[in-house]
Amino acid sequence: MTTLYQSVALADPLQRAVADMGYETMTPIQAQAIPVVLTGKDVMGAAQTGTGKTAAFALPLLQRMLAHENTSASPARHPVRALVLLPTRELADQVAEQVKLYAKYTQLRSTVVFGGMDMKPQTAELKKGVEVLVATPGRLLDHIEARNVVLNHVEYVVLDEADRMLDIGFLPDLQRILSYLPRERTTLLFSATFSPEIKRLAASYLHDPVTIEVARPNATASTVEQCFYGVGEEGKRAAIRQVLRERQLTQAFIFVNSKLGCARLARSLARDGLKTAALHGDKSQDERLKALEAFKSGEVDLLVCTDVAARGLDIKDVPAVFNHDVPFNAEDYVHRIGRTGRAGASGLAVTLVTERDARLMGELEKLLKKKVEVQPLQLRDERSPLRHGDSRHREGTHGARGERDGMRSSRNHRHAAPGFVPSRDPFFDRPYEPGSAPEAAPSWEQPPAAARPRVSSNIKQRRVLPALFKAPQASEENAA
């Protein structure tokens, strides 16, 4: 935290709103971005999640638009002057809520449009006239094509979570939307990373931008304790219960790689007596918003999510994040664990690693630029990871790991690093019977050289990460 809000030239209505929200000092991205945006310059900003980006662009834009503040009820006197684009419905709804709070003592109007909801109420709001429009790209194009909104008065456009929008294929939609906007405008681009694609986007649509970086690219928050535990696939659920109990955690996000795995894990944890909800792309918008509200209010303790929830959701004081699955994309790890340790608070990030994850862990190490130590976890939970009557499926596992929340798939997610031969999984081979024990404890060791699969010499990545996994003692206690 740095400068006081009173030190920047914000009008009294905005200062009052900020005070009502309990803000006292600015975060680094706010301290650097607000003065620049107030001058009308384009900005290319990089900041890790949970750093206060919304206030960094919303407050100075509202300040500049106060010159157009109008008490007239005529929609024509309230044209769209600021357009904020975000990749997901949850993010759009959250940013719109914050904008309303910042503008509550002004006459400036705002609304939000996103998919998964009836267009008619959104159309009615647009027809009333709004100065600030928060939107997802697809639904905004629907309204443009239906002539429900005109964007020829837009003076400011914000591309928030720009890397995520490109990641899920919104570039053509962004290009179409930007073609409807006046050429003379202020453009603000915020991204967690400055990838080559983001730099090309900025070069195309930003004019001489001021670059603001408050953390090195792909940095993880220093306030987050990161733990990596080596477990068998069948022991992940027990591992989550054990860490929750030992750390006395009251709430947590749990991330999985597929919608099917998300739903199964949420049901399994609920059967264990934990207050759990699922958040993934197959949920309706109403179901997703209800799950978020229940988590915020404390009615739900565990929110099991796909990466649709990994970016930007601002839920304060969440003490922990679990990666039930190592993410397919290493950059998603940064965004997932950014759900905890926000705004300077401490947090815990636990990642459960199996021997199938060696390649993904190698990619994560490259991103973090450091060696990751995976510690064996001695499970002491007496309950079986699977209940009697469960079929061949395992919660949150590879049966549907190719499905990436309906957005993107991984062609190689089943391939472990060369040299690994997956151990036979007794829980996968047959349903668990109470009182029975696995035929053999899973082995972390590599097979004899003669039994290893042959690998083509043109494949460069041969590293197996042997140090990641330490062989647990094969005992009846481990096997039970």
UniProtKB/TrEMBL annotation:
Gene3D superfamilies listed in its UniProt record: P-loop containing nucleotide triphosphate hydrolases
Disordered: region residues: 378-480
Catalytic activity, as annotated: ATP + H2O = ADP + phosphate + H(+)
Chain ranges of the Helicase C-terminal domain: 239-383
Name under which the protein is recorded: DEAD-box ATP-dependent RNA helicase RhpA
Keywords: ATP-binding, Cytoplasm, Helicase, Hydrolase, Nucleotide-binding
Motif (Q motif): 3-31
Basic and acidic residues biased stretches: 378-408
GO molecular-function term, one example from the UniProt record: nucleic acid binding
UniProt family annotation: Belongs to the DEAD box helicase family.
